[in-house]
Amino acid sequence: MAKDFNFDDVQDQHTNSEIEGTADTNVSDNIVNNNQSTINQNNAKTYNVVITDHNAPMVILFGPPSCGKTMTLVRLTRYLSGTYDFMPDQAFRNSTDTEFNELCKNFNAAVGADKAADGTKYIDFMLLRVNERRNGRTICQFVESPGEFLFNPQNPTAQFPAYLHQIIASNNRKIWLIFLEPGMSQEDRFAYVKKIQDLRSVIDSRDRIIFVENKVDLPATSSFVLSPTNINMGGLFRYVDGLYPQLFKSFTVKGIFGSKARYDFTAFQTGTYVEGQDANGKPYKSFQAGHDSHPRRLWEIIYKRIRG
Ligand SMILES: Nc1nc2c(ncn2[C@@H]2O[C@H](COP(=O)(O)OP(=O)(O)O)[C@@H](O)[C@H]2O)c(=O)[nH]1
Ligand SMILES: [Mg+2]
């Protein structure tokens, strides 16, 4: 049950003239400010990013640490690898960090490894261009940043970082993937709802919202998964709605013909994680991709929303 809202009647004002008028906003400032190579709690607030493509829609992953943002990208990259190339954009961070730059170059090898859950941890702040393999056209760009800069349960009322406002201010069409997961405490969930409502108050009302209930394999939600291809989406939605009071309501508009949900809701599982040891006895988490129906379902919604 994707809760669909028909956006077709909402005029899209992302016109070319607007894009030309504001293209390259602050790029030179960013380069000046951006000579710090790594991002940390101290400079996160003011850290600037460089957006070079002002046309391709942006899909922004939004969620607390460990909700599965990076592994969702890993899973989508693998699932779509026959048709699309996922290319990290080094300019986004204008980084001099060699480790980051190496990982950008080797992104596709890193996501293919069964150690992916460990191996990609250095690239959790990146922009990935999704290019159609047959013609190189960028159809969208994914943005991932560390969850603690978006919603930190230890400091739930912290301001959003500057780079998020930069992204919000860009003229690209935006699709927000807002992650929910069964592992959050009640206190954190309530604070997270507030945070998402804060986000809603600063983003364009034409932006698309996709709520992703990740980790549906966990015991709290696995009973809704009858099989990977058959999920009791209505039951899952009601369960999640109860856990995050007012969340979905705040993205629902009342009209004369009844209420309309201005979001999609879907279930997801990146895969299975098994703790193991490598040849040197070092512990690591092995990752086995889950059933293809999960990325297929998610990609169908994303694809629909990047198109209009
Ligand atoms: N059970 C389960 N665990 C998951 C799933 N996706 C992610 N995880 C766990 O969550 C951890 C953090 O995932 P990651 O993508 O790095 O989260 P991020 O901090 O939001 O980028 C992983 O290492 C896994 O242990 C999932 O679908 N099911
Ligand atoms: Mg991450």
Plain-language structure description:
- It is a single chain.
- This protein has 308 residues and is an alpha/beta fold.
- The protein has one domain (5-306): 3-Layer(aba) Sandwich (Rossmann fold).
- Helix content is 33%, strand content 22%.
- The protein has twelve helices and 13 strands.
- Strands 2-3-4-1-5-6-11 form a seven-stranded mixed β-sheet, with helices on both faces. The protein has a two-stranded antiparallel ribbon with strand order 7-8. A two-stranded antiparallel ribbon has the order 9-10.
- Strand 9 (252-255) and strand 10 (258-261) form a beta hairpin.
- The chain is globular.
- It starts with 15 loop residues before the first helix and ends with a helix.
- The model is unreliable at 1-36 (pLDDT under 50).
- Bound molecules: guanosine-5'-diphosphate and magnesium ion.
- Tell me roughly what share of residues is in helical segments: 25-40%
Compute the average pLDDT. 85
| Count of folded domains | 1
Named CATH topology? Rossmann fold
Strand content range: 15-25%
SS field, number of helical segments: 12
Quickly give the CATH architecture: 3-Layer(aba) Sandwich
CATH class: Alpha Beta
Strand order of the largest sheet: 2-3-4-1-5-6-11
Uncertain segments are 1-36
